Each structure stands twice: as structure tokens, then as C-alpha cells.
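User: Teach me something about this protein's shape.
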Amino acid sequence: MKRKILIAGLSILIVLVIQNFSTSAQENTSDCKVLMKGISEHYQGECKNGLAEGNGIAKGADIYIGSFRKGFPDGKGVYKYKDGPTYTGYWKKGLKDGEGELRYMVNGKDSVITGVWKADKYASKLKKADDYKILNQNNIDNYSIKRTDQDIYLIEISFERVNQKIFPRDLEFTFSSGHVTKDGKTLTLRDFTYPAYCYIHYTILKSFGQVTCNFDFEVLTPGKYTVLVTNN
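Assistant: First, the predicted structure itself:
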């Protein structure tokens, strides 16, 4: 998902940059320098103190479209190398740095490397985005949140105490959107939008008295979720 958003954002950036050049007085900035050798021959874009600064297009043996700082690619940008590969992602001081995608051809077939770069070198794969986030957990002994299906949008919440399914009598709940039904001892949330915020409040009786339980969480990724809240 993050990669799709990144690429979409860069595509919008490229369109805006090109539109800028067609109307801007800075279209021909021959006195504005790019300090990266492969793209230093010709520059169109924003300039500061004689150096490329802001959005621009730089050309040489290679082509770069994106953000500049102090004469170097810095921020989001697309870099097309003369021998074919294209890098779409983040830069820092003229080096690939941050999340990005490198496309290149191997034996006539398109290949892609997606991940994180550091100082122009591939460092690691992208971390899997979290499916959910715990916002508050008070007097809850254990919980389980599992994403069991990516095509069905549903959240099923059940409660357990001493290995027995229960449904708290004074259960209070609030959801950011959607329609809630009680199916036996399970709360089911349907027709909601993401991210979904779920706030649960109830009390249980223990040997030393009544205890207030709170369990608040946020579902971030679309899908079907099974939530089990446990008290001993």
C-alpha cells in the first residue's frame, strides 16, 4: 500500500513539475547549477543562490525529475539512467536514501526491487504495514487480533474469561463508523470505513471487587478480523 501511495504521489509531482515549467518564468535557468555529474548539463526549474532548489528537471547522460536541495536531488524524485534502470523514490544529497523502487530489465524481462536505500545502497525490504494499533488496554489480561481474510470487511469481537466465552452484561462500545449486531456472544461490525476505531468498556467481578476494563484499538488495513478479549 505504501509503495502504491509513494508512486502515485511521485506521478502527481511529475505532472505538477511539467505544468510549472510551461508557465513559469524560471523555465530556462541556464545560470542555475546542478551539482550531480550525470544530470548537470541542462536544468529547468526552481533555483536559489545559483543552485537547483525545489522542483525541477535535470538532464545529462541521465534524467531526473523531482525535488532538489542545494544543487542535488533531495526528497522525492524519479531518476532514469542512460542504460535503462529507473529509480522512483527518496533522495538525500544526491544519493538514494529512503523508500524507493528500482526497475530494470534482465534478459528482456522487467524486474523490480522495492525497499529502503541508505547512502545510495539497497539496505532492506519494506517493513510490512501494521494491520492494527492498540490505543488503550486497561485490566485486560490478554487479547488476540487476527486478520483472517482480505476480501471480506468484517470485525468480530468476542470475550473470554477462564476459558469460557462470555458477553459482559454492562458492555459499552463505540465504533467510528458502521453497523453493529450481537450474534450470540459475539459483536459483529459491518459496513464501516477504514481506519476503524473501536472503543470497548465493561466491568468484571474479581475476588477483591469490581474491576473496570477498557480495550480500545484501531484497525488500519481492510479485511476480516477476529478479536478475542480475555480476562482471567
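Now, about its shape. Residues 132-231 form one domain. The longest helix spans residues 2-23. If you'd like, I can walk through any region in more detail.
User: That's plenty for now, thanks!
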